Input
Amino acid sequence: MGKKEKLIARLKSLPKNFTFDEADSLLGYLGYSKGNKGKTSGSRVEFRNIDLGAKLIMHKPHPDNTLKPYQTKQLKKHLEQEGLI
Output
């Protein structure tokens, strides 16, 4: 089982300690690119998949790197709707 499959399995279990770095890596494996929403975006980060025409906006957690439970659920739901997991 590769890193991509391990991250997908971990996300599907909705862990309480899923990190932003893990989400960033998983989205990268699935063809998303990361960008800011502009100079005033603050902690908002936009992930786009040009092939699918999909985008996901998330707030980068701080000072901790752990996603909030609603963010983990949002990420899982988005990837399921796009048919990626």
Summary: DSSP finds three helices and three strands in the chain. Helices lie at 3-12, 20-29, 69-81.
